[in-house]
Fold this protein.
Amino acid sequence: MPEPDSAKPSHFIRNIVAEDIKASTYGGKVHTRFPPEPNGYLHIGHAKSICLNFGIAEEFRGLCNLRFDDTNPTKEEVEYVESIKEDVKWLGYDWDNRQYYASDYFERMYEYAIELIKQGKAYVCDLSPQEIKEYRGTLTGPGRDSPYRNRPVEENLDLLRRMRAGEFEDGSRTLRAKIDMASGNLNMRDPVIYRILKSSHHRTGNTWCIYPMYDFAHCLSDSIEGITHSICTLEFEDHRPLYDWFLDELGIYHPKQIEFARLNLSFTILSKRKLIELVGHGYVTGWDDPRMPTISGLRRRGYTCESIRNFCDRIGVAKRDSMVDIALLEYYIREDLNKRAPRVMAVLRPLRVIIDNYPENLEEELDAINNPEDPEMGTRKVPFSRVLYIERDDFREDPPKQFFRLAPGREVRLRYAYFIKCVDVVKDEQTGEVIELHCTYDPNTRGGDSPDGRRVKATLHWVSAAQAVEAEVRLYDHLFTKQDPADVGEGRDFKSSVNPNSLVTIKSCRVEPVLSGAAIGSRYQFERQGYFSVDPDSRAGKLVFNRTVSLRDTWAKIEKAQGK
Ligand code: ATP
Ligand code: MG
């Protein structure tokens, strides 16, 4: 009997599954499914559901199906189907040959609908959508029976057949379950199970002009596939009685629906409908814009699938809604890349430095460590010469207290190289901007240590001007300025909290020559700055890097604390 994996964090769904296996509820079997609607790209919230469904199946040696819930042809597209498959695979999960579509079962669903009519449990209703709403009642008051509720079975069968044959206009008739218009649960007040929609479907084409509603299609698909545990988000809790009703009335195989709290992430929108708006209105460059919380956006940004899976494991599964701090997601990508990303030096905002006492035509190769966390990643050579670039931010002409980096008359260490001391500052005559520094170096400090034991307080990254490679770097910040982007006050919508500074592009960065020809998608730590990955926009001779996540910058923190 498969036992729960003791290394995995326990949660109530695992416990239910483990109990069911023990009690042999479904013959000791576990069979889950991930059921996306192909009406948008998957986001990090879906990753939680994917990890849960595929994870439970994996752990208990069961199976997990990928099922496209494609019951609304007006919003669904093949592009979305393809992207969903790519994303689930990229997360490391495999559905083998179990790729299904709700539309695979349209014929069987239709037969089940006929069965309900024959049992007197469903009827064709001629009320308009507006009237159905009015008859539905409120949370506090009961609804009213439709005047068509007691149509004879034969008439219902005939009308449903003609609905299917395309004899009636969109919205003119529906098939409804006959349950209870006075139920305390609005979902049980004779819900619509079929509607007329003369719209071509991405898989069934024009075969159908009536389509089943979600609640009807979902439980039937689960039942047909022999799903044991139908795991979904909390908003479906109130739909569970309906899920159970359909299966019980039809007397067919009955999976167990279990609800959990969806992922909410600070500074992030997790709703396909809203994400579509961001794409459609040009707030981002596409579904895979590195600022998007989509799996494809995170991937392009440089996230690894391991970091996302670790994050999903860590946030756990609960029954109550909560908001997860986006800093936790960032923590997991830092943790992962810290171990696996090679470190290199890159200067984002270059300031020219001339080492006055370094020979004109000399070029040295210095040894640099690729990753101190992993000696097996070895070392590389970094060229050093008389003209270098350092980071503009690493120099202050008039250094504030606590600023220990380069300043006139001050000595610092260049990583893997030498101690240098600033002896002169050249400025633009017009603007007063610092354009060049003159320094001297101490040849005895090669490798970064002084034989006389004198100390410096800062170590800077740098590149040698002649050999450096030019690159574009894209720095990202949260896409929204508000922790809860929907919290915008009366009359405004979530788009008003889009962060206008979520992307800063720097064109003329200089990176170590070892990066020339870096493969798209490869990831690096730029020393002292953060983790970066090569964007697909890169071309030969024109590297583009995305900042995946910054390192925590202590100086930026000090300045922030001082309110600067
Ligand atoms: P969205 O609100 O983004 O449109 P959805 O629920 O309509 O999401 P589906 O394609 O129906 O999108 O989702 C597929 C599965 O993923 C469902 O089982 C759904 O419950 C789950 N899911 C969607 N969003 C989240 C989330 N934020 N956290 C956890 N699971 C989610
Ligand atoms: Mg949904």
User: Anything to note?
Assistant: The two ends are 61 Å apart (CA to CA).
